[in-house]
Amino acid sequence: MAAYAKGGLRYLHKLNAANIPAELIQKGQNRVIDASLTLIRERAKLKGELLRALGGANAVASLLGVPLGHNSSFLQGPAFAPPRIREAIWCGSTNSTTEEGKQLEDPRILTDVGDVPVQEIRDCGVDDDRLMTVISDSVKLVMEEDPLRPLVLGGDHSISYPVVRAVTEKLGGPVDVLHLDAHPDIYDAFEGNKYSHASSFARIMEGGHVRRLLQVGLRSITSEGREQGKRFGVEQYEMRTFSRDRELLENLKLGEGVKGVYISVDVDCLDPAFAPGVSHLEPGGLSFRDVMNILQNLKGNVVAADVVEFNPQRDTVDGMTAMVAAKLVRELTAKISG
Ligand SMILES: [Mn+2]
């Protein structure tokens, strides 16, 4: 766990004490970041070439892992999620067809450009301002290879800010966001951290990246969460009124008149009975089928999505929540591709 410590480069204070020139550190950091982006760029390029050689497609979901957990207010396990989700997607216990019949093994449906090497970059002492930009740049590199569309594997929820920022900057305008979560994640800052996983939607709304933000599954919301929701014009759907809201939420039509729809799924939107492997267990949530109904019936052009906050360190020994996260990714793939 040492490399995942909150402070980034653990010996940076020793370097400072030894009067190592800042320029030396910065130049090295720049090289590491360039190398990281080069690997993602080249993988995206190759995957784009392959799918064009296979006859092309209008839209292809492309996995991009962002193994970042240090902006969590409680546990940091989501940093370990992307490889566990991939493993479950391709696990032999189920077939590789989505519920509506799309073949995940078809590279014109789903492809993968790998992970942003978050821990390696942090180990070089790169701060969060810069790290968030690297995440945004990685997302843009995927989108550069039209028709690849980012399907991002978190990571804690702090990653949604640089991802949504990149998607809207690349598309040249705002999107509508469907955000499934037990929590609104809209604190101005949490414990002094503006990049906290509890503040990502405050950053997203301040940035003007979103026209409509719909938050669904809420059941842990403070007065600040409600006030911030009003301040930013967020449509907050709470679990206590879900039976009343169900029909509306299972027949959503979003993204018209803007650049499309972004879907952010925090695994803790689900009741812990369905998904125990999360950092913040919050009873009274959605069933897996509720989430499927909302996603499968949604009408709109889904331009990108993320699945965040799966914490493998809290999962059952048989990896139940990994399968849940993987199925969310599989069905989001069906939604995005075509
Ligand atoms: Mn949450």
User: What's the pLDDT, averaged over the residues?
Assistant: 94
What molecules are bound to this protein? manganese (II) ion
How would you sum up the global shape?
globular
Number of helices: 11
> Strand tally, please?
8
Low-confidence parts: 1-5
Cα-to-Cα separation, first versus last residue: 40 Å
Q: What percentage of the residues does DSSP assign to strands (E)?
A: 15-25%
The succession of helices and strands, N to C, reads HHEHEHHEHEHEHEHEHEH
Question: What is the rounded Rg?
Answer: 19 Å
Question: Which structural class do you get from the secondary structure elements?
Answer: alpha/beta
Strand order of the largest sheet: 2-1-3-8-7-4-5-6
Helical amount:
25-40%
Largest sheet geometry: 8 strands, parallel
Q: Concise description?
A:
By secondary structure, this protein is of the alpha/beta class. The protein has helices at 12-17, 22-53, 81-89, 118-123, 128-144, 160-171, 200-206, 223-231, 242-249, 288-297, 320-336; strands spanning 60-66, 110-115, 148-154, 175-180, 210-218, 235-238, 261-266, 302-308. It has an eight-stranded parallel sheet, sandwiched between helices.
